[in-house]
Amino acid sequence: MDFRELGSSAILQNPGKMQDPLHSARWFSSCFPSGLASCRMYAESIRMPADVVSLLQHLVRIPSVNPENTPGTDLTGEGEMAKFLSGWLEALGAEVTLEEIRPGRPNLIARFAPMDGRPRVLFGPHLDTVGVGGMTIDPFGGEIRDGRLWGRGASDTKGPMAAMLWALRQTRDLQKASPIAFDFVAFMGEESNQWGSKDFAKNHGQEYTFALVGEPTSMEIVHVTKGSLWTTLRATGRAAHSSQPQKGENAVMKLARALDTLDHHLGTKLASYTHPVLGPSTMNVGVFNGGSRPNIV
Fold first, then answer.
1. In the chain, what are the domains?
2. Which residues are marked as active site?
3. Is the model's pTM score more than 0.85?
4. DSSP 79-148
5. With 90 as the cut, is the pLDDT of residue 118 above it?
Protein backbone atom coordinates (compact mmCIF):
# COMPACT_ATOMS: atom_id res chain seq x y z
CA MET A 1 0.00 0.00 0.00
CA ASP A 2 1.17 3.50 -0.82
CA PHE A 3 -0.06 6.25 1.50
CA ARG A 4 0.15 8.62 -1.45
CA GLU A 5 -2.96 6.86 -2.80
CA LEU A 6 -4.94 7.80 0.33
CA GLY A 7 -6.21 11.09 1.65
CA SER A 8 -4.52 12.10 4.88
CA SER A 9 -7.82 13.38 6.25
CA ALA A 10 -9.42 9.96 5.76
CA ILE A 11 -6.50 8.32 7.51
CA LEU A 12 -6.80 10.59 10.51
CA GLN A 13 -10.58 10.49 10.70
CA ASN A 14 -10.86 6.72 10.43
CA PRO A 15 -7.57 5.04 11.35
CA GLY A 16 -9.47 1.88 12.26
CA LYS A 17 -9.89 1.11 8.56
CA MET A 18 -6.24 0.06 8.51
CA GLN A 19 -6.00 -2.99 10.73
CA ASP A 20 -2.41 -3.96 10.02
CA PRO A 21 -0.01 -2.28 12.48
CA LEU A 22 2.15 -1.32 9.49
CA HIS A 23 -0.70 0.86 8.25
CA SER A 24 -1.85 2.27 11.56
CA ALA A 25 -2.18 5.85 12.71
CA ARG A 26 0.85 5.32 14.93
CA TRP A 27 2.94 6.15 11.90
CA PHE A 28 1.61 9.69 12.18
CA SER A 29 2.28 10.23 15.86
CA SER A 30 5.26 12.45 15.12
CA CYS A 31 3.41 14.71 12.69
CA PHE A 32 -0.10 14.77 14.16
CA PRO A 33 0.48 17.66 16.58
CA SER A 34 1.61 19.82 13.65
CA GLY A 35 -1.70 19.42 11.86
CA LEU A 36 -3.01 17.88 8.68
CA ALA A 37 -0.56 19.54 6.30
CA SER A 38 2.40 18.13 8.19
CA CYS A 39 0.83 14.68 8.19
CA ARG A 40 0.19 14.89 4.46
CA MET A 41 3.85 15.71 3.85
CA TYR A 42 4.89 12.83 6.07
CA ALA A 43 2.51 10.46 4.26
CA GLU A 44 3.93 11.56 0.93
CA SER A 45 7.44 10.67 2.06
CA ILE A 46 6.74 7.16 3.38
CA ARG A 47 5.74 4.14 1.31
CA MET A 48 4.46 1.17 3.28
CA PRO A 49 5.74 -2.01 1.62
CA ALA A 50 3.12 -4.60 0.69
CA ASP A 51 5.53 -7.54 0.44
CA VAL A 52 9.16 -8.42 1.08
CA VAL A 53 10.29 -7.37 -2.40
CA SER A 54 8.66 -3.96 -2.02
CA LEU A 55 10.32 -3.66 1.37
CA LEU A 56 13.72 -4.39 -0.16
CA GLN A 57 13.09 -1.80 -2.86
CA HIS A 58 12.33 0.77 -0.18
CA LEU A 59 15.50 -0.09 1.74
CA VAL A 60 17.64 0.20 -1.39
CA ARG A 61 16.11 3.60 -2.14
CA ILE A 62 17.34 4.95 1.19
CA PRO A 63 21.00 5.91 0.60
CA SER A 64 23.18 4.65 3.45
CA VAL A 65 26.70 4.76 2.03
CA ASN A 66 29.33 4.51 4.73
CA PRO A 67 30.71 8.08 4.99
CA GLU A 68 34.19 6.72 5.65
CA ASN A 69 34.24 5.23 2.16
CA THR A 70 34.62 7.08 -1.13
CA PRO A 71 32.92 8.65 -2.86
CA GLY A 72 31.15 10.47 -0.07
CA THR A 73 28.10 12.64 -0.61
CA ASP A 74 25.56 14.43 1.51
CA LEU A 75 23.36 11.36 1.06
CA THR A 76 25.65 9.12 3.07
CA GLY A 77 25.45 7.68 6.54
CA GLU A 78 23.14 5.36 8.40
CA GLY A 79 20.79 7.89 10.00
CA GLU A 80 17.93 7.75 7.48
CA MET A 81 17.95 3.95 7.42
CA ALA A 82 17.78 3.85 11.20
CA LYS A 83 14.89 6.35 11.17
CA PHE A 84 12.83 4.31 8.72
CA LEU A 85 13.51 1.01 10.49
CA SER A 86 12.61 2.53 13.85
CA GLY A 87 9.14 3.43 12.65
CA TRP A 88 8.65 0.13 10.84
CA LEU A 89 9.66 -1.97 13.85
CA GLU A 90 7.76 0.11 16.37
CA ALA A 91 4.65 -0.39 14.25
CA LEU A 92 5.20 -4.13 14.67
CA GLY A 93 5.23 -3.71 18.43
CA ALA A 94 8.97 -3.78 19.02
CA GLU A 95 10.74 -1.66 21.60
CA VAL A 96 13.37 0.22 19.61
CA THR A 97 16.55 1.82 20.93
CA LEU A 98 19.05 3.85 18.91
CA GLU A 99 22.55 3.83 20.37
CA GLU A 100 24.64 6.53 18.71
CA ILE A 101 28.13 5.17 18.08
CA ARG A 102 29.35 8.10 15.97
CA PRO A 103 27.53 11.43 15.47
CA GLY A 104 24.36 10.74 13.50
CA ARG A 105 25.32 7.09 13.06
CA PRO A 106 23.50 4.76 15.46
CA ASN A 107 23.11 1.06 16.06
CA LEU A 108 19.45 0.10 16.05
CA ILE A 109 18.23 -2.43 18.62
CA ALA A 110 14.66 -3.77 18.40
CA ARG A 111 13.28 -6.16 21.01
CA PHE A 112 9.92 -7.91 20.77
CA ALA A 113 10.08 -9.56 24.19
CA PRO A 114 11.25 -8.29 27.58
CA MET A 115 14.66 -9.11 29.03
CA ASP A 116 13.28 -11.87 31.23
CA GLY A 117 16.00 -14.50 31.12
CA ARG A 118 14.81 -16.53 28.15
CA PRO A 119 17.43 -17.41 25.47
CA ARG A 120 17.81 -14.67 22.90
CA VAL A 121 18.62 -14.97 19.20
CA LEU A 122 20.03 -11.98 17.32
CA PHE A 123 19.18 -11.07 13.72
CA GLY A 124 22.14 -8.88 12.74
CA PRO A 125 22.42 -7.14 9.35
CA HIS A 126 24.18 -3.79 8.94
CA LEU A 127 22.82 -0.40 7.98
CA ASP A 128 25.63 0.89 5.75
CA THR A 129 26.79 0.04 2.24
CA VAL A 130 29.98 0.57 0.27
CA GLY A 131 30.23 3.49 -2.14
CA VAL A 132 28.56 3.92 -5.51
CA GLY A 133 31.60 4.81 -7.63
CA GLY A 134 31.71 3.07 -11.02
CA MET A 135 28.09 1.90 -10.93
CA THR A 136 26.33 2.09 -14.31
CA ILE A 137 22.81 1.75 -12.87
CA ASP A 138 20.90 3.99 -10.52
CA PRO A 139 22.43 2.86 -7.21
CA PHE A 140 19.29 3.81 -5.30
CA GLY A 141 16.68 2.89 -7.91
CA GLY A 142 15.69 -0.56 -6.70
CA GLU A 143 14.86 -1.57 -10.27
CA ILE A 144 13.54 -5.09 -10.86
CA ARG A 145 14.92 -6.53 -14.10
CA ASP A 146 15.54 -10.08 -15.35
CA GLY A 147 14.22 -11.52 -12.12
CA ARG A 148 16.66 -9.56 -9.98
CA LEU A 149 16.47 -6.42 -7.88
CA TRP A 150 19.28 -3.98 -8.68
CA GLY A 151 20.80 -1.34 -6.44
CA ARG A 152 23.55 -0.59 -3.94
CA GLY A 153 23.16 -2.82 -0.91
CA ALA A 154 20.53 -5.09 -2.50
CA SER A 155 22.72 -8.04 -1.57
CA ASP A 156 25.00 -6.67 1.15
CA THR A 157 23.01 -6.50 3.33
CA LYS A 158 19.60 -4.99 2.61
CA GLY A 159 18.41 -8.22 1.00
CA PRO A 160 19.05 -10.31 4.12
CA MET A 161 17.72 -7.41 6.20
CA ALA A 162 14.42 -7.39 4.30
CA ALA A 163 14.07 -11.16 4.75
CA MET A 164 14.67 -10.85 8.50
CA LEU A 165 12.24 -7.96 8.86
CA TRP A 166 9.53 -9.78 6.95
CA ALA A 167 10.00 -12.94 9.02
CA LEU A 168 9.59 -10.87 12.18
CA ARG A 169 6.50 -9.23 10.72
CA GLN A 170 4.93 -12.58 9.89
CA THR A 171 5.60 -13.97 13.38
CA ARG A 172 4.97 -10.83 15.42
CA ASP A 173 1.96 -12.34 17.22
CA LEU A 174 4.10 -15.23 18.47
CA GLN A 175 7.02 -13.19 19.76
CA LYS A 176 6.00 -12.48 23.34
CA ALA A 177 4.94 -16.08 24.11
CA SER A 178 7.87 -17.75 22.35
CA PRO A 179 10.32 -19.64 24.60
CA ILE A 180 13.09 -17.93 22.62
CA ALA A 181 13.29 -14.17 22.12
CA PHE A 182 14.24 -12.83 18.70
CA ASP A 183 15.87 -9.40 18.54
CA PHE A 184 16.73 -7.35 15.47
CA VAL A 185 19.95 -5.34 15.62
CA ALA A 186 21.20 -3.31 12.64
CA PHE A 187 24.82 -2.20 12.96
CA MET A 188 26.45 0.97 11.71
CA GLY A 189 29.94 1.13 10.22
CA GLU A 190 30.32 -2.48 9.08
CA GLU A 191 31.93 -1.50 5.79
CA SER A 192 34.83 0.30 7.46
CA ASN A 193 36.01 -0.14 11.03
CA GLN A 194 32.99 -2.09 12.33
CA TRP A 195 32.51 0.32 15.20
CA GLY A 196 28.89 -0.71 15.59
CA SER A 197 29.38 -4.44 16.05
CA LYS A 198 32.39 -3.90 18.30
CA ASP A 199 30.45 -1.59 20.59
CA PHE A 200 27.47 -3.94 20.63
CA ALA A 201 29.61 -6.99 21.42
CA LYS A 202 31.24 -5.12 24.28
CA ASN A 203 27.99 -3.90 25.84
CA HIS A 204 25.39 -6.50 24.84
CA GLY A 205 27.15 -9.60 23.56
CA GLN A 206 26.58 -11.57 26.78
CA GLU A 207 22.81 -11.24 26.32
CA TYR A 208 22.66 -13.56 23.30
CA THR A 209 22.83 -17.31 22.82
CA PHE A 210 22.96 -17.32 19.03
CA ALA A 211 23.26 -14.87 16.15
CA LEU A 212 22.17 -14.90 12.52
CA VAL A 213 24.30 -12.42 10.58
CA GLY A 214 22.90 -11.14 7.31
CA GLU A 215 25.70 -11.43 4.75
CA PRO A 216 25.41 -12.63 1.12
CA THR A 217 26.52 -16.28 1.16
CA SER A 218 24.61 -17.65 -1.87
CA MET A 219 22.06 -19.24 0.46
CA GLU A 220 24.75 -21.36 2.13
CA ILE A 221 25.00 -21.52 5.92
CA VAL A 222 28.33 -20.10 7.05
CA HIS A 223 29.27 -20.71 10.67
CA VAL A 224 32.80 -19.30 10.82
CA THR A 225 34.58 -16.22 9.54
CA LYS A 226 38.10 -14.86 9.58
CA GLY A 227 39.11 -12.27 12.10
CA SER A 228 41.29 -9.38 11.06
CA LEU A 229 44.20 -7.32 12.33
CA TRP A 230 44.76 -4.00 10.57
CA THR A 231 48.25 -2.59 10.94
CA THR A 232 49.83 0.63 9.70
CA LEU A 233 53.58 0.76 9.04
CA ARG A 234 55.28 4.15 8.92
CA ALA A 235 58.82 5.05 7.96
CA THR A 236 60.61 8.40 8.14
CA GLY A 237 63.43 9.64 5.97
CA ARG A 238 65.41 12.72 5.02
CA ALA A 239 64.63 14.70 1.88
CA ALA A 240 67.20 15.20 -0.87
CA HIS A 241 67.22 15.79 -4.62
CA SER A 242 66.94 12.63 -6.69
CA SER A 243 70.23 13.49 -8.45
CA GLN A 244 71.99 13.05 -5.10
CA PRO A 245 70.00 10.35 -3.27
CA GLN A 246 73.00 9.52 -1.08
CA LYS A 247 72.38 12.77 0.82
CA GLY A 248 68.93 11.65 1.94
CA GLU A 249 67.11 8.68 3.41
CA ASN A 250 64.39 7.22 1.23
CA ALA A 251 61.39 6.32 3.40
CA VAL A 252 59.63 4.65 0.46
CA MET A 253 62.51 2.22 -0.03
CA LYS A 254 62.57 1.49 3.70
CA LEU A 255 58.94 0.44 3.57
CA ALA A 256 59.46 -1.54 0.38
CA ARG A 257 62.21 -3.58 2.05
CA ALA A 258 60.05 -4.04 5.16
CA LEU A 259 57.13 -5.30 3.10
CA ASP A 260 59.37 -7.71 1.22
CA THR A 261 60.59 -9.09 4.56
CA LEU A 262 57.03 -9.42 5.85
CA ASP A 263 55.93 -11.20 2.70
CA HIS A 264 58.72 -13.78 2.88
CA HIS A 265 58.79 -14.37 6.62
CA LEU A 266 55.43 -13.44 8.14
CA GLY A 267 53.47 -14.63 5.12
CA THR A 268 55.08 -18.06 5.35
CA LYS A 269 54.44 -18.26 9.09
CA LEU A 270 50.80 -17.22 8.70
CA ALA A 271 50.25 -19.92 6.10
CA SER A 272 51.13 -22.52 8.73
CA TYR A 273 48.07 -21.50 10.78
CA THR A 274 45.18 -23.25 9.08
CA HIS A 275 41.50 -23.76 9.75
CA PRO A 276 39.52 -26.79 8.53
CA VAL A 277 36.95 -24.53 6.82
CA LEU A 278 38.72 -21.22 6.17
CA GLY A 279 42.11 -22.59 5.17
CA PRO A 280 45.40 -20.79 5.87
CA SER A 281 45.76 -17.38 7.48
CA THR A 282 46.61 -14.69 4.95
CA MET A 283 48.21 -11.28 4.65
CA ASN A 284 47.52 -8.37 2.32
CA VAL A 285 49.00 -4.92 1.69
CA GLY A 286 46.03 -2.79 0.70
CA VAL A 287 47.21 0.85 0.68
CA PHE A 288 50.66 2.32 0.12
CA ASN A 289 51.36 6.06 0.26
CA GLY A 290 54.71 7.81 0.16
CA GLY A 291 56.84 10.51 -1.35
CA SER A 292 56.04 14.03 -2.49
CA ARG A 293 57.52 14.38 -6.02
CA PRO A 294 59.27 12.06 -8.49
CA ASN A 295 62.52 14.07 -8.24
CA ILE A 296 62.63 14.24 -4.43
CA VAL A 297 63.94 11.53 -2.13
1. 1-48 (no CATH), 51-213 (3.40.630.10), 232-297 (3.30.70.360)
2. 128, 191
3. no
4. HHHHHHHHHHHHHTT-EEEEEEEETTEEEEEEESS--SSS-EEEEE-BS-B---TT-SS-TT--EEETTE
5. yes
